[in-house]
Amino acid sequence: MSKKIVIIGGVAAGPKAAARARRVDPNAEITIVERDSYVSYAGCGMPYYLSGEVSEFKKLFETTYGVIRDHDFFKKEKGCDLYTRTEAKSIDREKKEVVLENLDTGEQFTLPYDKLIIATGASPVMPQIEGTNFKGVHILNNPGDVQAIKQSLEEVDGEEAVVIGGGSVGLEVVDALSKNYMFTTMVTRSRILGGMLDIDMAERMQKKLEDADVEMKTGQKVLRIEGDDEGKISRVVTEQEELDCDIAVIAVGKEPNTALAVEAGLEIGETGAVAVNEYLQTSDPDIYALGDCSETTHIMTGEKIYFPTASVANRQGRAAGTNAAGGSEAFKGVLGTELMYTMEYNVGSTGLSEEKALQQGYSVGTATINTHDRPHFYPVHGMVVMKYIYDQNTGRLLGAQAFGDGDAAKRISLLAAAITFGATVEQMAELDLGYAPPYSNPLDVAQHTANICRNKMSGVARTMTVQQLKEKMDAGEDFVILDVRLEEQYNMRHLKDSRVKLIDLSTLQERINEIPTGKEIVVVCALGTRSYEAYRMLVGAGFENITFLETGLQGWPYEL
Amino acid sequence: MSKKIVIIGGVAAGPKAAARARRVDPNAEITIVERDSYVSYAGCGMPYYLSGEVSEFKKLFETTYGVIRDHDFFKKEKGCDLYTRTEAKSIDREKKEVVLENLDTGEQFTLPYDKLIIATGASPVMPQIEGTNFKGVHILNNPGDVQAIKQSLEEVDGEEAVVIGGGSVGLEVVDALSKNYMFTTMVTRSRILGGMLDIDMAERMQKKLEDADVEMKTGQKVLRIEGDDEGKISRVVTEQEELDCDIAVIAVGKEPNTALAVEAGLEIGETGAVAVNEYLQTSDPDIYALGDCSETTHIMTGEKIYFPTASVANRQGRAAGTNAAGGSEAFKGVLGTELMYTMEYNVGSTGLSEEKALQQGYSVGTATINTHDRPHFYPVHGMVVMKYIYDQNTGRLLGAQAFGDGDAAKRISLLAAAITFGATVEQMAELDLGYAPPYSNPLDVAQHTANICRNKMSGVARTMTVQQLKEKMDAGEDFVILDVRLEEQYNMRHLKDSRVKLIDLSTLQERINEIPTGKEIVVVCALGTRSYEAYRMLVGAGFENITFLETGLQGWPYEL
Predict the structure, then answer these.
(1) Strand A338-342's sheet: what is its strand order?
(2) Which of A259, B32, B321, B559 is most deeply packed, by most CB within 10 A?
(3) A1 or B199: whose pLDDT is higher?
(4) Partners of residue A53 in chain B, C-beta under 8 Å
C-alpha cells in the first residue's frame, strides 16, 4: 500500500515538502490542507506588489511558465490532493488521523496519515493597543492583507502614512508606501533592525532613511490609534507625540502558529515555536514540523532560535519531504542570514552580531569600511558600508553586516558561505573571487574589509569608530582631529569643532611640524583611506597616541 | 639607515606593492620605475572607455576622490619616488643595483636596492602573420592602444570590424565595438573562452553571441591581413574565407615580460613566466616578482600556472609589499576564477573545468541548470546557466561555470569561496545565504544546482545533456522524446524530429498509456523543471529506461 503523507499548510514550506516527497516517492498519496483560499504563493513578493513593482497580483501565484498553482495544478502536475479553506482542528496521534473542517460549510472530516507534516506558518504579532480596528489600519501577512492595503491606498484622501515597527517587513512597507507617493513615518519602540544590525550600523542606516525623507521616530512607544467619526484612522498616538495619518501598517513581528501542535501535545521549544530534531521530527517521530511554525538551531551558537524566513522554509521543505517519503536528510540549522531592500538601500547581515559575539564570550574585534562596490570609473556603482565581527584570538570571522546603494547583498551571501566554513579574515582576504569592472574592484569590498581586520590584528592599523570619536568630542577632551582631505572636500562638509585641523594629505609631509606632538590625534578623511595613509606616515614620524577614523566622515551618522 | 625598495613596473601590481610597503615601513625609501608614461591606471577599465561607458580617459587614472595618480601624487601622498619613461635595462645582483635608462634622453643611471620588486607585466601575443602593420589593425594592451582604437573608430569610413581571438579580452572588445555601432565578426582558431568554459558551456554562450548579431567564425585560422593602397586594412583572410573590414583588433593572449629577469639570471618557470615561491621571492631572495610577469600556483592541483589578472596582481601586491618591507605574508595561489562581461551577458568560472577535473583523475559528475536568478515575478531578473563539476565519490565541488543575463558573477564568486573551503554539494545546498526577492529565489541558483548534483548522486535524477541528446538524434536511434510543455510553448519552438511526442505535464497521468513502454524515453521541457517532475512520475509508473534533459530546450545550443 502506498504511503499517506498529509501536509498542514499550503504557503511555502508545505508545498515544497509535498513536491519533494512526490519526487522521492512517486507512489505516495500526498494531501495538502490550507486554511486560506490562497496557496503556494510568494509571500515575500507582497511588498513588491504593494509598491507596484510587481504589476499583477496573479504573478505571485504563478509558476515560471505562467500556470496558476491551484487545485488542478497540484493534482495534475504534482499528483497531490489539495484542500483549501480547510482547517486542521486536531490530530489523533493514536489513530494517526487529522480532523479537518471545511471553513465554508462547517463540515468536519478526517484524513489518515502515515507521516504528517505541520507547516502552519506564523501570524503577525498584534500590539495590545486601542484603535487597531479603525479603517486604514493594516497588517501585512497574507495576500488578503496586501489587497486591503492596496484598496486603502486607492480610497485614501490624504498622503500620510505611519508604519509601526522597525524590522525588515516594516522597512519594506515604508519603501512600498513611498513608491505610492505617501509621506511615511516609521515609529519603533527601540531602534530599527534590532535583530539584524548592531546599533552602530542601524544608526547609519537610519540616517540614510532620514536623508530619503522617511520620518524616523525611534524609541517611541505607541499608546493608541485614534480615528474619526466615520471609523477611519486619524492619528497614531505615541508617548511623545501625535502622528496624523491616513493609513497605518503594523509590522511588529511574527509569532508561530502552534495551536494545532499544542493541542496534539507536541513539544513546544523555549522560543515558543514547535520543537524539532535535525530531521525536522517533532516529539512524535511520525510528525514533522518546519517553516515559520517551528524553531531551528543557530549553527554557530548551538542555540535554538525562532527564525521564520522563506529560504529556510524552502530548504527545510526538501529535508522534510525527503524524510516523510522514507529518505533521510538532516537540516542542521541556520546562520541567521537576512537580506532586505528599502529606499534604494540593500541591507543584510549574517552570523553573529557584535553584541551576540560578546555575549558568547569571544574576544571580539570589528572593522567597518565605507567604500565603492565597483570601480568608481565604472558608470554603475554604489557604496557599501560593511562591518566584520571577528575573533581576535584566532582571526576567525564571526559575523558580517552591510548596507548601501551598492551590492551589499552579494557580499553578505558570500560571507555567509565563508563564515559557515570557518574562514579566518586572512583566508577571506586570500580568496580568488574573480574580477571585472562590472562586478567589483580588483580587491572586493569583502576582501578589503578582511584586510582592515588583518591590519588591526597585526597592529599596523589603530582606528576609532564614529561613536568613539563622537563621545570624545562630546566629553570635551583635549585632542586633535586631523582632517586630511582636499580643501574643496572640507569646505563642502566637515566636523564643526574647534579641535579640527585641516592638512591635505598631499601637504602633510611638508607641514608635519604644525601637528602638536603632545596631544592625541585622530585622523579623518572621507572614507578612511587617506586617513589611514596619513596615520601610517605620522606613525613613521614618531607619533604614538594616534588613530584614524574607520568609515571616514561619509560614515558619520550624526549632524555635520 | 632606511631600507631601499625599488619597484620595476608602475601599472597595477607595482603601485600596490609600493603602497603596502610604505604602510608597513613608513621610513623605507621606495622608488617606482615605469617604462611607459602612464602609471597606476585601471587597465581592466580600457574596454569600458572604448565602449563609451567610461566617459573620460582620465577617470582611469584617478583616485576615488578625483586626484590623478602622477609623480606628485606618489611623492606627496604615498611618499614614493616615481620615474616614468624609464626602462630597467639590467640588474646587478652582486652590487644590488638596477641599471635604468631614461627613454626620452637615452641617459643611463643606477639605483641601489635592498629589496627589488619586479612587476614588469605582460605583452600581447602577436600572431606571426602578414599585415599587422596596416592602419586600422590594433591590439589592446595599454592606454595608448585604446586611444588609437578610439581614433580609428572616429576616422573609419565603414562599419565592419573583426576581432581576432576568442578569449575574454576579445569578447570585451566585441562588446565595446558593438557599442560603437560596428558590425563585429569574431575569428578564433578553436572555440571561444577555451581557458574559462568547457565546450558545452562555450557552445551555448556562442549561440547567445550569434543571437546578439555577432558573426562568429570559430575554428578558423587567420592567414593574413590585407590592406589597400593607402596602407589601410581592407580584410582579414582566414583559411576558409575573406572577411572585409574597416578595423581589426588582435587579442590572442598575453605573454609575460621576462626579459629583465632572464638577463639577471633569475629562474623562469615551465609556464614561461618568472618563478616565485609563496613569498613571491624569485630565485634571488632579495628580488620579488608578481603580477602578469610571474607564474603562480593553482591551489587545487598544486600545478604552476600563468594566470595574469588584476585581482591577483592586487593581492600579490599586498604580500610582496609586506615582505619587501620586512614582514611576512604568503600568497598561496589561485583558484583560477575569471569573470567577464560581453553583449549583456555575465560570464564566469572558478575551480576546475570538467576537462581539467577528468585529467586530474577525479570521478567527475556534472549538473547544469538554466533558471531565473531572481523570482520571475520580480521585474528585474535574468537567466543563469550554471554548471557544477563535482567528485562523484565524495560530493566535493571541483568547479563551477556560469553565464547569463542574470547575475552569474555573484554566484561564481560565491562558488569560489565554497570550493576553496572544500565544500561538498550537500554543504553548498545547506548554506544559509539569505533571501529577498531583489536578490535571489528562496533557493538560490547556486543551491538549486547543488540539489541537482545531490539528486544525481542519490539516483533520484538521471539526466541527459543537450550534447548527448543531439548525438542520439543524429545517430538515428529509435527512442521517444517526450515534450511535456504547454501546447502554446511547443508551438513556438520545438525539436523538429518525428520522435518527439507532446504530452503536457498536466495531462500526463491521464495519457500515460500513450507512452510506448519498450523504448528509451528522454523527457524535455523548457528549463528542466517540468521534465524532472514528469520523469519522476514515469519512474513511479514503472518506466526504467528514462532520462530528462538538463537545462531544457532553453539550453539547446543548436538549431530548433
Answers:
(1) A338-342, A345-351, A397-404, A383-391, A364-372
(2) B321
(3) B199
(4) 378-379
Cβ neighbours around A498 below 10 Å, total: 6
Of A377, A414, A421, the CB nearest to B423: A421
For residue B480, the distance in angstroms to the closest alpha carbon of chain A comes to 21
Q: How far is B538 from chain A (nearest CA, A)?
A: 8
CA angle B442, A87, A30 (to 5 degrees): 60
Would you say residue A338 lies in a domain? no
pLDDT tens sequence across B200-220: 999 999 999 999 999 999 999
- Chains A, B: CB contacts within 8 A come to 284
Question: Does the distance separating the beta carbons of A315 and B533 come in below 8 Å?
Answer: no
Asked if B436 and A340 touch (Cβ cutoff 8 Å), the reply is yes
Of all residues in chain A, the one with the smallest CA distance to B63 is A376
pLDDT of residue A69: 87
ipTM of the complex: 0.95
The nearest alpha carbon in chain B to A317 belongs to B443
Search chain A and give the residue with CA nearest B77.
A506
Q: Are A271 and A351 members of one domain?
A: no
Q: What's the farthest any 2 CA atoms get from each other in chain B?
A: 91
* Chain centre to alpha carbon of residue B540: 43
Quote the domain boundaries for residue A214: 137-252
Q: Last residue of some domain: A218, A252, A286?
A: A252
Task: Give the model confidence (pLDDT) of B219-275 as tens digits.
Answer: 999 999 999 999 999 999 999 999 999 999 999 999 999 999 999 999 999 999 999
Q: Is B231 within the bounds of a domain? A: yes
The total of structural domains in chain A comes to 4
User: Do B525 and B474 fall within a single domain?
Assistant: yes
Count CB atoms within 10 A of the CB of residue B95: 10
Q: Do both B377 and B272 map to the same domain?
A: no
* Same-domain pairing of B79 and B103: yes
Q: Among A424, A458, A492, which residue terminates a domain?
A: A458
Burial (Cβ within 10 Å: 0-12, 13-18, ≥19) of residue B360: middle
What is the domain-level CATH number for residue B506?
A: 3.40.250.10
* Contact flag B338-A434 (C-beta cutoff 8 Å): yes
Of B376, B413, B506, the CB nearest to A434: B413
Query: What's the CATH code of the domain at B142?
Result: 3.50.50.60
Residues A421 and A313 in one domain: no
- Do B208 and B117 fall into the same domain? no
pLDDT in tens, B299-343: 999 999 999 999 999 999 999 999 999 999 999 999 999 999 999
Is the residue at B404 inside a domain?
A: yes
What is the maximal distance between C-alpha atoms in chain A? 91
Cα–Cα dist B300/A404, whole Å: 35
Domain match, A92 and A163 both: no
Question: How close A25 comes to chain B (CA, Å)?
Answer: 7
Q: Which of B11, B344, B377 to mutate to test the interface with A (most CBs of A within 10 A)?
A: B377
C-alpha span between A547 and A398 (Å, rounded): 24
A452 shares its domain with A469: no
